[in-house]
Amino acid sequence: MFNEFDPAKDQILRVIDNSGNVINKKYKPDLSTDEIINAYKHMLFVRTADFMAVSYQRQGRMFTYPPNYGQEAIAEAMSLVWEENDWLVPAFRELGAWLAKGATMKDVFMYFMGHEEGTVFRNAKNLLPISVPIGSQLLHAAGIGYSINYKQTGQVVYAIIGDGGTSTGDFHEALNFAAVWNAPVVFIIQNNQFAISVPLKNQTKSVNLAVKSYAYGIPGVKVDGNDLFAMTKAVKEASAHARSGKGPVLIEALTYRKGAHTTSDDPTKYRTKEEEEEWDQTDPLKRLKLYIENNKIWDTSEEEKLIAEFKKEIDRQFTEAENFPATSLEDVFKYMYVDMPDDLKQQMTEYEKFLSWKEARK
Amino acid sequence: MKVMNMVQSINNALEIKMSEDQDVLTYGEDVGVEGGVFRVTEGLQQKFGARRCFDSPLAESAILGTAIGMCVSGLRPVIEIQFCGFMYPAMNQLISHATRFHNRTRGKYRMPMVIRLPYGGGINALELHSESMEAMYGHIPGLKVVIPSTPYDAKGMLISAIESDDLILFMEPKRIYRAIKQEVPEEKFNIPLGKAKILNEGNDVTVIAFGAMIREAQKAVAMAKQAGISVELIDLRSVYPIDKETIAKSVKKTGRIITVAEGPVSFGIGAEITAIVNEYAFLSLEAPPKRVQGFDVIVPLPKGEHHYMISPEKIFYEIERTVKF
Questions:
Q1: Residues A295 and A358 grouped into a single domain
Q2: What's the whole-model pTM score?
Q3: If contacts are CB pairs under 8 Å, which of residues 154-193 in chain B contact chain A?
Q4: What are the structural domains of chain B?
Q5: Between 20 and 30 A from B82 (CA), which of A104, A278, B185, B230?
Q6: Distance from CA of B285 to the nearest CA of A (A)
Q7: In this structure, are residues B144 and B194 in contact, taking their beta carbons and an 8 Å threshold?
């Protein structure tokens, strides 16, 4: 497939149009009706959770939150493809993928309320924590890829970065190391057009981001990231390529961040309403919903009922997160080392003495 | 018993751990075919194959960043950063990730990684080949920083470092890589990390040094002995955690303290040791604590480096002044 979409010619893989019609049957992935309906429901859950997260933050109940609004298909496509033991190396805007890997909304809420516990993703297998320093996490994926080859475990790593991250040195180093090592890594760029406020044209002179794969001697493909079918097809092909020992693949997923960078950001400062409306036509949920309706595979009027159920569940998890106890003094020290130095123990003991003194003064 | 220099004893430690544990592997720039620019990994690729001892592409951030990925997926990488001055491109991976992963994931993922880092001056090298930045590393939470001064210690400490589930920065005094030879057992042995070692017992003044400065300090101790001054010489061996107990106990006995370190003096090892002495042995002090360290300057290139490097005479000069205070 990779030969048929040449990034140098700026070709793009797209399966359904903005009206939900299949325009490229050849590349439509083999998904059952149930899989398609469930994928839509997952994406709807993620969007509902995302809106609620923004609203909780606006109420002052979380300190920040990076919205996923408009980018839901990319995470969903990964979860349709990966196997249970595969690895996910996230950045910080892949809510659907974290949830599919076993994280909970409670975890996510807790992290953005200020609990380290929230990024442990305790019940998720082979999921790394949220990565704040842009681009840096891709190197971890290359290292995991080396381990997979070394131990011959047959896993694949999915590693995520944004468009801004492709300007970092670590992006280059990670793709280069993974390629030299033939590491089974699927690198996915969520090109949502903006790094906070900076548009893509200020990040690169390349015709697109997928073309950067040429420099590493690996396949690259530009995909409509708001088209669940195209995205699933691309991840499926890339995953098979990596798992068969042929090395990494670079996928550029074209999308649009309909929300702000984080809740501290104001997008009206750097983009127009016209631009937002234009991209709104490509919205991944709208298109999938139209596909479902065109093909009459599910009664989308059930959606409202479903959203109401989601809201109840999300709110329940939010309450649990709000009721999670504040970080104990012991936990501030405990995880710094496996074998804690005596000096650190002493720092904690001395602080405890101060606390008892303070308590006694009351 | 076999006589080894530090290059050989470190190589021997790596060979023992790689034989014993399939999860241990080593890589870095020129580490594989050539055996490293200092030949520390010589012969390991022949013995263990190119999957376990190999040349990585040339990028320090990636060497450290990929080792993080290996740690979370069950390996125990020993990576080599060719020179202390080449570490800086990897600082983001060190500070933003490697030192934080265990805490960030509340213990779900560990970082059983050893970063081998040849450091220090006095070898007539180019720019960025002579620094001693151990104090900077000691300041980073989540990192343990150790520095051997003899072939024997290097072997026992490296074995302990590889077996540790914590991230260890293993700084190697490259100036004495081949300068000191001693008998080192060929079988496996451990030296616990974090403990200083008293090399010479004395009563008049405590001198604390580490790495390549131990040899210079030993010469100064001999000069002092001739002058009738009894010096207690301590090899710090671990920058973090720092052995407060041994330091305080010694100063309580001698009442005087001199720290010797190649790194820039301000905010350095000597400052930390002086603070420890003030906190735990304040009333025993009979003279101001003295720091014999590098100036707060860029290490000069070889034609000027002699001004920077600490000589036995310089140490002896300060010993005499401190005792006569």
A1: no
A2: 0.97
A3: 164-166
A4: 2-184 (3.40.50.970), 197-323 (3.40.50.920)
A5: B185
A6: 23
A7: yes
